[in-house]
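Database export, one record per block. Field names are fixed; values are copied verbatim from the stored entry.
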Amino acid sequence: MQTKILQVKAGDLTEKQIQEVLAVWRRGGLAAFPTETVYGLGANALDADAVADIFAAKGRPADNPLIVHIGRIDQVKELVTEWTDTAQALASRFWPGPLTLVLPASPVVPGITRGGLATVGIRMPSHPVALRLLQAAQLPIAAPSANTSGRPSPVDAGDVWEDLKGKIDLIVDGGRTGLGIESTVVSLEAGALRVLRPGGVTVEQLRQVAPVIVDAGALGQVPVEGPVASPGMKYRHYAPKAPATLIEGEDLEALAAKVQEVVAELAQSGIRVGVMASEPTCNRVTALPEQERIFALNVGPRGDTEVIAANIYWALRELDRIGVDHIVIEGVPLSGMGLAVANRLRKAAGYNIITI
């Protein structure tokens, strides 16, 4: 298969470009497109064969459910059997935006889209390219991240090309995504919201609508058997090619010192060490005598979890391209976007964590 890249200038789609994408989806093909979170790999969510091609292209396990993307809120009625006042309040506040609601699925949603579950995850993205395509399509579009399963998620069209060229029909290149981290996934329980996957909408924001329970798997390594209600809960995700060590701690100076210590030990052993850290910590490690074996990437100001969130997948992929032997990652505070960042970093490190 030949994969075509469709360049979108300044986020503005032409009618011809829209029709080209819609033609792919309507014939059961696969088209990747930018959202405000990461790039999604889209197909008609109601076409079981097209959805099966998503799983094949990504190498995705069949019991890992997909998120269905919509362009108008009235599309929800076709896809779910229950729409509560709480669901309406969440949609009114956070849609379009990076929030996925897990709801009882209508029979019209194929089992393969739902990962065999009785529920389906639905969201309305806010990226202007995604929203315009979805509104024009008048189809629900199933769209996991447009990457090989298990790899860091794609934040630009080049990442998609790197993983999926020759496996999908089309990539809509709308530039780099904004948030750079996936949507928050919540299920609605009696009197509360359960965060299954932290993401672009924070726990603090959700608490303004209803009480929140954070699922144990959001930060801990919890053994999972059987089906799961959300992507990101069961399988290896966000992983670089090199092994990684995540260093966490509340004292930022002590944290930076520990990162420096671990990087020095690894570099002294003769291997190439990648570092993902704030600027002050990057400056410390690049001043080490072994600096020729140290490749440090500044992912954002210390403690600025929104900036860091936008850069973690870029940094993981860049260190893969450099070809480092081990990656050392500086942890982040758990408040705000920090919960989502920590979730991704812990999974990327395979829960190889040093806590100080």
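Remark 1: The longest helix spans residues 305-322.
Remark 2: The chain has two domains: 4-218, 244-355.
End of record.
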